[in-house]
Amino acid sequence: MEDLGLKEVFATINSQALLDALLVVVVAMVIIVVAQKLLPVLAGRLSGKPRLYLLASVPLIRLLVIVATIIIVVPILIEPSFENMVAIFGALGLVLGFAFKDYVNSLIAGIVTLYEMPYRPGDWIQVDGHYGEVRSIGARAAEIVTPDDSVVVVPHNMLWNALLANGNDGTDNLMCVACFHLEPNHDVQRVLDLLRNVAFTSPYTRTWQPVVVVVKNEPWGMLYRLKAYPLEPKEQFRYVSDLTARGADVLAEAGVGFVSAPVTGG
C-alpha cells in the first residue's frame, strides 16, 4: 500500500518539472555560495558590532534560502495535498533516521544552535579544549580558527554533552587577563595603582569599560590579575602581551620582584 501511495505521489513528475526544480536548486546554491564568500569578506573590512552582525547573518541567510527552496520545489514536483506530504516526509524521515542517524543528530543540533545561538560567527569560544574564533556555522558543524591559525571543525551535536565557554557572546566586548606573580612584602596599593595605569595607558584598551586588578595571597607570594577589555576581540593576544610587557617594566622600575616559578606542591 505504501509503495502504491509513493508511486501515485511521483506519477505527476515530468521532465519540465524536474528542470524547473533543478533551476530553483541551482539558484539557491548560487545565493548560498555568494553569501558564504562575500559577506565574510565584507565583514573583514568592518569592526565592532557591524562585523559581528554581518558574520552572524551568513548561517541565517543559508537557512532561509534552504527553507524557501524546499517550499518552492515540493509543489513543483508533487501535488501539495495532505496525503502526499505525509507520504513524502514519512518516507524521507525513515531513510534519514536509519541511514544518517549521526548526521541528522548534528543537523538538529545545528537548528538548535541557530535558535539558541550559544555561539555565532565572530565569537571566541572554547569547546573540548580548543579555543578560537568561530569562522563559520554550517548545517552540521562550526569551524573555529585557533590562535595558531588552525581550523577546528566542531560538530553541533557536541552541544548535547560538552561544556562551552563564550568569551564575547555576540558582542565586541571580550575581557582579557594578564597575570603577575610577585614576591611578598611590597606596597600592595601602589602595585594596584601601577597596573591600573598600565591598562588605561595601553593603546589597545577600551577605556570606557571597567579595568579591574584582583590580588590574591598565595604561599609563594602575591598573584595579581589585571582584567581589561581590548578595542577589538581579535587584538586580545597582542593586548595581553602589551599589558604583560609594560606591566613587567613598570613593576621592575618600582623595585617589585617577580616569582620565577610559583610553588604548586607541598
From TrEMBL:
InterPro entries: LSM_dom_sf, MscS_archaea/bacteria_type, MscS_beta-dom_sf, MscS_channel_2nd. Pfam families: MS_channel_2nd (PF00924). SUPFAM superfamilies: Sm-like ribonucleoproteins (SSF50182). Signal peptide: none annotated. The chain crosses the membrane at residues 20-40, 52-78, 84-100. Residues 102-166 form the Mechanosensitive ion channel MscS domain. It comes from the Bacteria. It is a multi-pass membrane protein. It is found in: Cell inner membrane; Membrane. Gene3D superfamilies: 1.10.287.1260, 2.30.30.60. Keywords: Cell inner membrane, Cell membrane, Ion channel, Ion transport, Membrane, Transmembrane, Transmembrane helix, Transport. Belongs to the MscS (TC 1.A.23) family. Homoheptamer. PANTHER family: SMALL-CONDUCTANCE MECHANOSENSITIVE CHANNEL. Mechanosensitive channel that participates in the regulation of osmotic pressure changes within the cell, opening in response to stretch forces in the membrane lipid bilayer, without the need for other proteins. Contributes to normal resistance to hypoosmotic shock. Forms an ion channel of 1.0 nanosiemens conductance with a slight preference for anions. This is Small-conductance mechanosensitive channel. It comes from Marinobacter suaedae.
